[in-house]
Design goal:
The chain contains seven helices and 25 strands. The protein is of the alpha/beta class. A hairpin with a 2-residue loop joins strand 11 and strand 12.
Length: 422
């Protein structure tokens, strides 16, 4: 390692997962061409790496906020490109960071271009999922299994129920980051966590009703109702929660369906929506080994499937619909358009929508590795998620900010209500 070359991370080497950093290299020769690398390991032991080539200026300095990558995993001026362009060394692996208590650790390094690429400098970036003072509390009360995140301070804070995805187990990443931004957030598992069954054959809204009641009783919660945050299959669950249950003021739907999919939906021991099913014969295999499942979903607007449509016109709260136009999991943009038309038809103005050209299915908090393909639990095989890395990364930055603005706008906070619980 060269003693004079220095790699700096500004404003510091420790930050929250969703915060940008500035990378600067100094001490190089004038106009020297070097390789910048990033490497990290997720909680399942999968290694992710990225590589980009840069040319120093006349003073021997590189600033990723100013200077373009000449080649590598991305080209052009992309200050956070080394993070979002990281790829798994094993095909069809998705970056897994579900435990909020351990930071995402990334090693950045500078290497000579010639020979074997001798390392000239390195720096470690610790990207925390939970902010200072945020309280992490596992929840095992009644039927609820999850984790509650409470921001520091007296509050009152708006409350959000996070339905991360419909995978088994529990993911804390999005909930902990949202709590770090000033929300009381409860993330819940539906199956496969703690003492819950490993698989389920139906979904019961009663579970989410219980979770909402639990959330509303928290001392620091000041919102009269709650927000619901979803993604993928949990998108249609969130629509049903907003349509059938009281106390939901704001619902964020990200790349989901407009109909109840895969499993029948029950409430108070009665089936309220049948399941929209899939046609495996319409799944398209590709040379990469991952399949495209987008066209495997039956048409919810076909006469025989209309009973599966979620009656979102019944909802009292507001909706934020976010659709990636290159989602290869299912046709999120078409489903969003159908919901917008449905609400307009019923004279509703309680919604806003946003489209992201070039983005794929997994729109998450920003600056994590982009995922083109990974194993799909329902399909039982690797599938393509779609998207182009640069456009997808930009969409995540925009959407994450928009989600927070949406919840702050529609989750009214009342200090007197919070004090009444104390």
């Amino acid at each position: 390692m060269s003693s004079q070359v220095r790699l700096r991370l500004l404003p510091g080497a420790r930050c929250l997962f969703d915060e940008p950093i500035q990378m600067k290299v100094s001490g190089l020769r004038s106009r020297q061409v070097v390789a910048l690398r990033a490497r990290s390991t997720d909680e399942r032991g999968v290694v992710f790496t990225s590589l980009a080539t840069y040319r120093a200026d006349g003073s021997g300095e590189i600033d990723l906020n100013r200077d373009p990558s000449l080649r590598g995993n991305y080209v052009g001026v992309e200050p956070m490109g080394l993070l979002w362009s990281m790829r798994p060394v094993t095909l069809h692996k998705r970056f897994q960071k579900t435990n909020s208590l351990n930071p995402h650790v990334v090693k950045f390094s500078v290497h000579e271009q010639e020979g074997e690429g001798r390392m000239l400098a390195e720096a470690i970036n610790e990207r925390f999922l939970i902010g200072d003072g945020v309280i992490w509390c596992p929840v095992k009360e009644g039927n609820i299994r999850g984790v509650l995140f409470t921001p520091p301070g007296a509050g009152p804070f708006p409350a959000v129920l996070d339905l991360y995805t419909f995978g088994g187990g529990l993911s804390e990443k999005r909930a902990s980051l949202l709590a770090s931004r000033g929300f009381v957030v409860l993330t819940v598992a539906l199956y496969g966590h703690d003492d819950m069954p490993r698989n389920i054959g139906e979904i019961h809204l009663d579970y989410f009703e219980e979770a909402i009641e639990f959330l509303k009783k928290q001392d620091k919660v000041g919102s009269k109702g709650v927000g619901v945050l979803s993604l993928s299959k949990s998108g249609d669950v969130a629509l049903s929660i907003a349509s059938y249950l009281p106390d939901v003021e704001a619902t964020v739907w990200i790349n989901g369906c407009c109909a109840n999919t895969a499993l029948p939906l029950y409430y108070r021991k009665k089936q309220i929506l049948p399941a929209l099913m899939f046609d495996v014969n319409k799944i398209i295999p590709t040379e990469s080994g991952a399949s495209m499942v987008k066209y495997g979903v039956n048409n919810p607007l076909a006469e025989e499937n209309k009973a599966t449509l979620v009656p979102i016109e019944q909802a009292k709260g507001h909706f934020l619909f976010a659709a990636a136009e290159d989602d290869l999991n299912w046709d999120s943009k078409a489903y969003m358009d159908e919901m917008v038309e449905r609400l307009k038809h019923h004279g509703k103005e309680n919604f806003e929508s946003v489209c992201y050209p070039g983005a794929g299915h997994y729109l998450e908090p920003p600056y994590g590795p982009y995922c083109p393909s990974s194993f799909h639990g329902l399909a039982g095989k690797p599938v393509l998620w779609g998207g182009e890395p640069r456009s997808h990364a930009a969409a995540e930055v925009h959407l994450w900010k928009k989600i927070q603005e949406f919840f702050r706008a529609h989750l009214s906070c009342d200090a007197t209500q919070s004090k009444a619980k104390l």
